[in-house]
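Me: Here is a favour to ask of a fellow structure person. Could you put it straight underneath, so I can go through it closely?

Assistant:
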Amino acid sequence: MMDKVLSDIMEGFGNVAGLFAYDPKAPMLFSSGLFWILFIVFLPVYAFLKGSRWKMVLFVVCFSLYFYYKSSGLFFLMLIGTSLVDWTLSHLIYKAHPRWLRLALMWLSVGISLSILGYFKYANFFLWNWNQMVEGNFQPLDVILPVGISFYTFQSISYVVDVYKKRISPTSSWLDYLFFLSFFPALVAGPIVRADYFLPQIRENRRASYNDIWGGLWLVITGVVKKALIADYIAQYNDLIFNDPSLYTGVQTLMGVLGYTMQIYCDFSGYSDMAIGIALIMGFRLGLNFDSPYQSRNLTEFWRRWHISLSSWLRDYVYIPLGGNRHGTLRTYINNFLTMLIGGLWHGAAWKFVFWGAMHGIGLAVHKACKPVLVKIPDNFITVFISWAFTFIYVSLLWVFFRANDFSESILIIHNIFVDFHWNQIPQFWEARPAWCIMMLTLIAFHFTPRSWADGVQTLFVRMNWVIKLIVFMIAVQLVIEFMSEEVAPFIYFQF
């Protein structure tokens, strides 16, 4: 009898220990229950240690590394190694006197970071293309892509480059730099945080205000709704279309494309809202990452509103170093094109991403070339609508190449829309999927409201009685439970 009890106790301990160990089939997500249980335990300890900066930093670093372990397993050791190398080289760069030595050390650091990223993300892509050229027998390498490696690599590069250009001084403490690089709200899918913006916040060690805490909670709620309610629900239909586009009509395909256009926005902006909200509750600001991008009237505006942290990073660390707009019109267009080409390749090791980036680069160049003519057109409702519609259609069609399994299926999807489209099938689609249609229409309506309205709702939530806040929270949770799929879907940008 006693042996049975001991066996049950040991099994129970084993199950609990397994819950806290890395499971490659169930990486930790912001939308998972385990994360929120850990975060609820984390917060009071964090608040208690906030009075001592070094204790707070050490605690957050440990939690961030554990969070990354739960997301990517032993790759958290590579993150620690990257931080050690970059921190050491940043000090050598800052102290070196000959410019050539400083430049060589900077490129050494950047080269190490890009080599690690290149191996994990692009090795199989380049090997496959090489074998296609030489007609070899390609066997893919057994490489697992660490979650978020693109994001923290870009943060690492920007830090080293800023130290080289003396925009910032290297952190005196390696722990401070590891805090910056591993900060768990932004670690696995951004936003890409700049050192000159974030490091002063670590040194300041500011406590979160009342508005920060409740405003952060509101962002978390909206992020969970966007991701776990809207994106995951509409994805169920979108996946049917993209998994086998040959089975569907033009109307059904168009709805799938529009669905994915809104899905990727809700998925990624939902993650950003949660990341920004969690950081705000802790007293840190990460900055705006999405600003109603589908309201844009041209591609230039779109990239000022979409994934702002990435587009600004590409501008400052790729476009401007290439020459920006300082060497004539043609060179400006080429720099735009190359920047977006790199942006496309950053998103994934496949030619469809290269094409996606290239078409955005061409679109940006065409818009800049047409500016002298466009500024002469009267700014009225008709021209505004046409500009918006053209931009939205262009962006949505390019999302097809981003999502489809390969280039040929992308062409098939677009072909279905333009060749097999019949207006009389729209009422039938509504009858077949009313909940999906209502959710899409509601989402579009909210997306096109002025930003001041959203800020006003957030302010109203902050001022509400705590009972009403609790009711709002419970309603959001209930909606997520009602519409959620059987499995928690990973964030789309985890793969990048």
